[in-house]
Amino acid sequence: MIEQTPFHSKITLASNPEPRCPCVLVLDTSGSMGGEPIQQLNDGVQCLVDELCKDGLASKRVELSIITFGSSVNLACDFTPPTAMHPPVFDAEGPTPMGEAVVRAHAAIESRKEEYRQAGIQYYRPWIFLITDGEPTDSNSEHWSKAIQMVREGEAAKRLLFFGVAVNNANQKTLDQLCPATRPSVKLQGLHFSEMFRWLSSSLKSVSNSTPGAQLQLPSPHGWTSIDA
Amino acid sequence: MLIFDETGRAWPLGKEIAAGGEGKVYRLLDSTEYCAKLYHKLPIPALKQDKLRALRSLPASARQSAAIPVSLGFATSGDPAPHSVILPLVKGHDIYELYNPQGRQAHFRGATFEFLVAAAKNVAAAFHSLHEHGIIVGDVNEQNIKVRTDATVSIIDCDSFQFEHAGRLYTSDVGTPLWTPPELQGLSVHGLARTKNHDAFGLAQLVFLLLFAGRYPYAGRPLTNTPLSPEEAIQRHAFAYATAGSAPLLGPPPGAPPFESIPPKLRELFIQAFAAGSAGPVERPGAGAWIEALQDLADNLTLCPGSHFHVHWTGAPSCPWCSVMRAVKVDLFPGIAGRVEENNIGTQENSVLAKRLLDLTLHPLELVEPSTFAVTSFIANRPTQKSQPSFRSAAKQFLVSVATLFTNRPAGESQPSVLSAAMQLLGFSVTKETRGNALTKELEKLEERLFQFSNRSEELNLAHRAQCSPLLQKASDLAARLRDIPAMREEALKQLRVKHMEAAMDKFLERFLIRRIKIPGIGEARLAALLSAGITTAADVREEAVKNVAWFGAATAAKLLEWRRQCEAQFKFDASAPLPDPLRSRINELVRTNLAALVAKGKSIEFEFNQLTAAYSKDFGKLQQEFESAIKERAAVQAELSKKS
Questions:
Q1: Choosing among A209, A215, A217, which should be mutated to test the B contact, i.e. which has the most B CBs within 10 A?
Q2: Which of A2, B315, B378, B511 has minimal Cβ neighbours within 10 Å of its Cβ?
Q3: Pairing mode, if any, of strands A62-69 and A21-28?
């Protein structure tokens, strides 16, 4: 396969010099997500895009990318401003190559950061937002250990913010191997994807608006996280 | 919901217009001049209450530049503790929508550099008047300044101003990292006494953003390997346009207007504001210095001969906007020309590419008999072959049957199978006549080898087809999507038009105030119940909302809904009127991005197909050569045999 180069990225960087906050949604589209969960996930992502579009500043600063993992690890959407985003519809099938997906997300962020640097665009700490309802099927591969190492180093150097969200019967213990110790995975209450993505939207908005000297204050995830988590 | 001002007057709340960390801002239904900010955290802390009270005492002349509260607001009349403030409603857009090229296209379409210079000067004037009164803005940021359509500005969020009243200093307590001067980066701003020089940093950054079309002073191409966060860049005075200074960290970014496109005086002020040493003892330029330098720029503007929208300084080496266009292919001041072309976005390019994609086809190759020697002669030398079809016709038969594999049509009944055709082609049957000598054995081996060629060419063709057919499927899907672009745009427009109409209807219905009309069966008590349930205008009258109001039976609800229908009937929507610019530009951007992605994908499919085809032809060429030499060898053996017999 010949790698595709996103055609529009240079143009949007030149016509919009605002600092960027890149966010990769790493979404589990394995077979077990089939039915209601994948439907809710689709709606939730659309909800995130709509919320970001409503905010003039966030729509200029946040860039979303979507990587799905199921029968393969797939770049479903390269970094795109919310106003130009048409989220693809996901189908659920296949195993759960979570490690590979995280490695891929990391690579996507590194290459986008290089594009920002070349264009002289500033950027905020990138986000990886991972949602799964299972456990990695590649936890014995080198992808998994590489993913853990990447997240750990990125978090320690404050070069990355990693969030893990567990859906239904996800194995949170395994997921927490990946999550930073200070920010363990959270369990989604029921299938409240829309509430969760609305939270993500307001969190992304708050990134550039925090008061100096104060800790980065994210809105409370109460309302979509499960209490028994 | 109602809120009460200090005189006890009640104001019904309208729509929410903004939400921030501290509270939400709502319109007041009976007023076009005022709005109300309701605080999240109640009761408002005592210190904050004092500050809000003190704000009202600021001099009237400071009010021209800032939306300073006119009254405290209370949840009930006579409540001792306020829960809100009533303040002037500022029309206009956040300043970032003006300096950012995308925002400008959406909200200030047609605004040129002249407009940006005027707005910059007005920003400086607003700071000047506040500073004159000893007021420090404190939390200068891109969301606290509104620009009106005449380029005048107003500063909002005044409860974060720093000022002195009755011998007491009220500090700002908030800040925004991207707008915090180097000397305050990383410090807590809570209780911090700020100075005019701190404000001067934010002011200089605003002027810079306006004059450099949304570029930040500290964003540039990195000259070292250490990545700088936006805050670190400020802290280290990494001004990307500084010419002097040792070991610069950043260089000007590609696609930014050159620093030389503004007068030397302004360049000097920017260096003074952003380069090292700006924290003191020499202070950053104050508002007065900016006003003077910007006025001078405004008096010395000219028009680029290439565009009616490229306004620039007369002393610039060349038009800065043209040089940006050359560098990054983006026109930062396209003016209103965008309207004409928007209906045709990409129609040329996509139909050409779509056609090319549909034209991609497989061209399966065939093994061709060598032409360098006469085939007829070796057939003529074999009298036993008379009953066999000629090599040429056998070859044709073989190729037809191979071709049917590719066209995917079922082979006709009369057509022989590939295998039998190949056997005939290679004269397989003749080898049955054994003569018992070495030559015949060799000939048999050769025939066997030649027979294999049909399999090998078939394999090559099948593999090629297997590789290419998913690509061809993708190509035709993509061509269809490319041709659908105008339809997609239409569909998106249609959907937006519906949304737009619903919004217009809501706005229209908001003008019908329930308090102002007389509906039979709705007395004072029911009216109060309606108002307290947040139903104040016809727009709020919805079935599910009305049902839930206390004391409302189905009959009363029906009357109210009937009233809404009457209001709705008066609504006229001009369906032919153009959509507002922000909606149009969102659609256009959507179409452009989609198109760009499809075109990129299409081109990569085309490229991949050509690569595969080239590799296939090369492989087939090799097979053809082997085939030819095998045939030559056989001819030689046959010649030898015929000599002996």
A1: A209
A2: A2
A3: parallel
